[in-house]
Fold:
Amino acid sequence: MSTVVALGGNALMRPGERGTAAEQLANLRRTVVSLRPLLAEAELVITHGNGPQVGNELLRQERAADEAPPLPLWLAVAQTQAEIGALIASELRPALAERETACVLTHVRVAADDLAFDRPTKPIGPFYSAEQAVQLERERGWDLVSDANRGHRRVVPSPSPLEIVELDAIRRLAGAGTVTVACGGGGIPVVRREGRLSGVDAVIDKDRASALLARELEAMRLIILTEVPAVYRNFGAQEQEEIRELSREDVEALLPQLSEGSMRPKVESALAFAGETLITNIDVLEDALAGHAGTWVRP
Structure:
């Protein structure tokens, strides 16, 4: 039985950082140390987000557009998936001794008529002030929203994942004991048209894609690592309360309180997965695995 671990943004970038390769490698080095309790798992698959990285890639393309043609969003997802996969693999190898690691460039099929294409919700890129957000909406035509009281971020369509295209390859690698990095950034979003897979401009939520992958792999557990130690009731308020364990009924009651661009997809992903899900922070992972931190969602 396999374990799927979904790395959140702070596994690669910390608040106040620019996201340089050196910063991301240093953060991943600490992340790999925290992951050591899981590296002995017989079948381990690691997924990751790419929100800040794909936003930065689009900024680079926009500013260099006079000299090099910009690429569509789905190719920016592919680029950052490979970029982050290479960084993760480079830090994993020294910790794995004789065991192998591999990064699978992963496509994820979505529906062409998904209503998400008419209602962007997925935050990407850096945070902006309210004044900057108004200017960017006016000058660039972006959709921006307030994100968890940390500022404003650009949002793009985030359709639901329907199929992991490279599922069989991921299953074979993990089954052979290879620590497999897959579904980076939620996967490269594609639709099926006339027998072909075509890229579409969107960013799939990596937690929803991770839940689909875990379900298809019949994984024992899904571990979602994020920026906060646990799920909270009344998050951000003076009376916020850390939740140690949630049943399916508890989750359904809590969902209306949760932000759509932040914690809500993680909790919904836990609901979608048939096994146990742990939502926590990389810094308290060992305590969370022992039941002393984090939030467990039980089936």
Remarks:
- The two ends are 17 Å apart (CA to CA).
